Structures are given as C-alpha cells and as structure tokens.
Amino acid sequence: MKKYTYTEKKDTRSGFGAGLLEAGKKNPEVVALCADLIGSLKMDAFIKEFPERFFQIGIAEANMIGIAAGLTIGGKIPFTGTFANFSTGRVYDQIRQSVAYSDKNVKICASHAGLTLGEDGATHQILEDIGLMKMLPGMTVINTCDYNQTKAATIAIAEHEGPVYLRFGRPVIPVFTDPDQKFEIGKAWMVNEGTDVTIIATGHMVWKAIEAGEKLAELGIDAEIINIHTIKPLDEEAVLKSVKKTGCVVTCEEHNKYGGLGESVARLLSTELPTPQEFVAVNDSFGESGTPDQLMTKYGLDSVNIIEAAQKVMKRAGK
Amino acid sequence: MKHTINELEDIASQVRRDIVRMVHACQSGHPGGSLGCADFMTALYFEIMNHDTDFKMDGKGEDLFFLSNGHISPVFYSVLARSGYFDVAELATFRKLNSRLQGHPTTHEGLPGIRIASGSLGQGMSVAIGAAQAKKLNKDHSIVFALLGDGELQEGQNWEAIMYAPHNKVDNLIASIDYNGQQIDGPTEKILSLENLQNKFEAFGWHVINSDGNDMDAIVKALHYAKSLTGKGKPILNLMSTQMGYGVDFMVGSHKWHGVAPNDEQLANALGQLTSTLKDY
C-alpha cells in the first residue's frame, strides 16, 4: 500500500475559496455570486480582490441561478455559491431550464454537502444532490476529496466550457493530494494499485478509503483504490480496467446509495462487465444532528465499513 | 422613426396571421397571449430595439430581449422571422418533430434570436437582470428588455428578482408585464389576485409606467419614454394593458383561447379579420 501522510487538516470549501481567487486572477470574465453565505463559502478573498465582479444576491437562490445564466450571455463565467442543498434541490427547475437546457456556462459551487455538515441536521444535509445533478443532460458533476484537489478543480472548471456542479464540504480533513496537481475533468486518479479488490471513492470518502486500504494490507488484502472526482462524465476506462483485474468492487460516497457514484459504476458494469459490487453509502435515509464523525459512524461511512464491504464483495466474487 | 405607425400596424397584422396559422397547423399552442402581445413585440423588434439579425449569442452592443412567458412562442417566432433572423418558411415547422421552433423557446436547437429557454414560468426576469448586469460590467450601454405574463407573477422567483433589481440599480432593464388579467383557469382576479401591481412594483423601488399594449401609437410612445428613463438608477416597469386574443373577435378577452388551437372554420374566420400585408409564409 502506497503511503499517504498529511501535515495539516483543512476544509475543502477553503480550497474552493483559494481556487476562486486564482481563477479570478487568471480570467477577468470570472464572476462570483452568493446567496448570503460569503463566510461559509470562503469567498472573502475573491470579493476583496474583485468587488465589482461579485454579486450578493441575498437569500434568493432561484434568482441567483437565473442571474448567473443571464451573466453568461454577456460572456461572464459565473460561480454561484451556497450550501449544496440550496444549490440543487431548492433550484432544480431553474438549473434545468435556465442553465442545463439553455447550455449556459454556469459553475454551481456547493459547500456543506452530505452528513459532514453536522449539527444543523437533515434540513441542510443533502444526500441526493449528485443524483439530481448527474441526471441533467450536459451537466458535469465533480465531488472533490481535499483542499488541494478542490482548489485545482475550481481553477479547472473555469477553463471548461459548459455547466458544472462542484460539490465540497464543511469539515477540516487531511490534506493529502499534491498541491501542484493539474486537475483533469473526467480523469480518475489512481490512489493505490492493487489486485484483490477495487475501491472507488469520491469526496470525503477518499481519505477513509486510504485508511481502509492500510488496514486491508495488514490483513493481507491488496486493494486498488481509485478516486473518481468526476462522477459525470465517468472515467469508464479506468473503472473497467481496474475491475477486469480485481473482479470485485466497492463504491464509497457521502450520498444516498440511490442516484450516486455507486449507481453510475453499477450501470457501467452491468452492461460492460457484470461484477459483484458493494455500496458504502447512506441507506436511503435523511441525516440528523451530530458531529461529522458521529454521523459518519452512525450512517455507515467509516473506514471499517469499507473494510467489511471489501471482505464481503471478495467472498461474493469467490476470492 | 424607422417605420410609421401604419407600417407597424401592418406588420402586426401579418404577425397575427402567422400566429393563428402556426397554432392551427399543429393544432396546439397558445394563440391568446400571442395575439395580445403582437403589437408590443412588433414595436420592439421593428422600432424600439437596436439589434442585429446576424445573431450572436453574446449580443454585445445590442439591445436584448427575454421572453419569460415562453408559451407565447408563436408571436416571438413570427417577429423573429419577419425581422430577418430566419426564413419565414420555417414557421411552418412550429411544434413539429425535428423543428428548431419548439413548443416553448429554446437555445438548444440553435434558433437564431433565442438566448434562453423559457416555458417553466417565473425565470425570465432573473435572466434579464443577469444579462443587464453583464452589460454594465462590459461597459455596454445598450438596454435589456423582458416580457412577463401577469399570471406568471404568481411565481415566487419573480419577487426575488423584483426585490433585487432596484437594490442593485439595474437601470438598463425595461420589463413589461402582459397585463391581460387572464390565465389558464380563468381571470387572475379569481385565481390569485394580483391586486395593485403599480403600487407593488413602486414599493419595491421600480419606476412604473402604464401603457395600452394594443394601441401601436401608444405602445411605441411608451417604449420610447421607457428608454428615456434608463440610466437613472431604477429599473423600469411597463405595466402594459392588453387583451388576450386581440385582433380576432371571437378570441378576444377570454382565457378560453389561452392554449387552444382554432379549427379550420375558426381559422378562416380569423384570417378574414386580419389583412395579409407581408405575404403568408
């Protein structure tokens, strides 16, 4: 197992804030919109540097999406910022008609996704957003795993023509990816090469997959770990190549098991290479109040759950 | 004046013929609101707006128009074709398979003149505001126009946008309300009353003007006046009284023709009331 270490923990949303500032410096057409959550989205640095390119919308997310769509017509590249719940479910029809169907170059940037939002509880903890967004034709869906990857992804989506949903989170977590990485949309990252089982993880679950991989190695299981940061378009080649080798797969995501990364992988494998698969995901449930760690444990999203799933799927595959 | 009032009225008559013929040909669509807005849309595209029929999505240096109540697509398509965005013959494909003239307007099929999809109501004002703010960032002094239905104002997103525009001094925006008092299920008064729209918009900080949207001379004057009010710190609202179905006597003033197509006999009757001035497509 390749060794991953970290010297600090940071939130992915701060990676977004840093990436937004850099994207703004690189391209004068980049503008930002926020629905009364500047601090939560870490947009302060961008606003300080480019006050005339920032639009405070107020608590009116539908209007924010519409204004963003309108701004693209004049050549702007708008980044909207609010919590994941208010970025998707609340404004689904606005995104569907004014952004996706209208082919508008809007970057919908969503913080506080999933259970790790914590104490605010289920009203704010969306676990359905990946599904909602990936169903929209033409929408690119990205869920990043640490500060550095989020920063790199934010810069990369500014250079990509077309609507993007960028999902990140609230808690501080290990920073373990390369600070100078080039983020390639739609290209999986091989975290660890292995032969016994494929573990595919996205977002906050990537670090947990690495922890699980270390424990599995102690048990004599050589896990291949792949980070799928771009859920749509899915890097099908990377998934198929790995699964051909290992013959079994575990998918890990901080999302409902319905509609997420796991289902995208299952759809691919069912037609191309039917393979035993286990899902580490929320079991069709809303979340609740609690600390991020407590919630990840209660809802089955810990490294121990990945280990159990890996052992189970290997058994099913006759290994 | 690019055209005399008589010339504009003649164009509007042809636009009305196009509307009833398009809706009749596919036996679906929304003739009522389309007929009611034919004068306004003709005035906008043939007299008021500075626009280029060699279509570019970014519309830099041009006035832009956004149709929020997308179901009145027949009038939009007719005016776009008649002003030269695409061949009028294409109007015959309205609502048919593989057409660029979808039931509700879309950018998705690449029809020149359309900059946003609309149909799901309540979204156009926000989009128009965004386009207007992009113009300000681009130091582009042209104007953004929008048209909304009155029933459409029941959608909450409009009021988010109506609150936002004055606060942010979006004063290069002229929004018009198709104030015909009708919606699918009946008069707006009965369905969900709009109460005093002038007071509501003024309370939110808009400069409100009133106009008669079925009097060509009046609507041209109102829109020129609205243009003179731009750049003064407030968005402008043109509260435009119209009659649904205007121009066809058996359709006028009733919600019953909101979304119903005429049969052969009704088409002949309607066309008998509308002079062909620019040749039918």
Chart the SSEs and their pairings.
The complex is a heterodimer of chains A (319) and B (281).
Chain A: E1 9-11, H1 12-26, E2 30-34, H2 38-41, H3 44-49, E3 54-56, H4 61-73, E4 77-83, H5 84-87, H6 92-100, E5 107-111, H7 129-134, E6 140-143, H8 147-158, E7 164-167, E8 172-174, E9 189-192, E10 197-201, H9 205-218, E11 223-227, E12 230-232, H10 236-246, E13 249-256, H11 261-272, E14 277-282, H12 292-298, H13 303-316
Parallel strand pairs in A: 2-3, 2-4, 4-5, 5-7, 6-7, 10-11, 10-13, 13-14
Antiparallel strand pairs in A: 1-8, 6-12, 9-11
Chain B: H1 5-26, H2 31-36, H3 38-48, E1 64-67, H4 73-83, H5 124-137, E2 144-149, H6 156-167, E3 173-179, E4 182-183, E5 186-187, H7 188-191, H8 197-204, E6 207-212, H9 216-228, E7 236-241, H10 264-272
Parallel strand pairs in B: 1-2, 2-3, 3-7, 6-7
Antiparallel strand pairs in B: 4-5
Helix pairs in contact in B: 1-3, 1-4, 1-10, 3-4, 3-9, 5-6
Report on this model:
The complex is a heterodimer of chains A (319) and B (281). With 319 residues, chain A is of the alpha/beta class. Chain A has 2 domains: 9-174, Thiamin diphosphate (ThDP)-binding fold, Pyr/PP domains (Rossmann fold, 3-Layer(aba) Sandwich), CATH 3.40.50.970; 189-316, Rossmann fold. Chain A is built from 13 helices and 14 strands. In chain A, helix 1 (12-26) packs parallel to helix 8 (147-158) and helix 4 runs parallel beside helix 6 (92-100). The longest helix of chain A has 15 residues, at 12-26. Chain B has 281 residues and is α/β, with parallel strands linked by helices. Chain B has helices at 5-26, 31-36, 38-48, 73-83, 124-137, 156-167, 188-191, 197-204, 216-228, 264-272; strands at 64-67, 144-149, 173-179, 182-183, 186-187, 207-212, 236-241. In chain B, the strands form 2 sheets. In chain B, strands 1-2-3-7-6 form a 5-stranded parallel beta sheet, sandwiched between helices. In chain B, strands 4-5 form a two-stranded antiparallel sheet. In chain B, strand 2, helix 6 (156-167) and strand 3 form a beta-alpha-beta unit. The radius of gyration of chain B is 17 Å and the shape is globular. The two termini of chain B are 27 Å apart. Chain A binds chain B through residues 31, 52-53, 55, 57-58, 60, 62-76, 78, 93-94, 96-98, 101-104, and chain B through 57-60, 64, 66, 106-108, 115-120, 122-135, 137-138, 140, 156-157, 160-161, 163-164, 168.
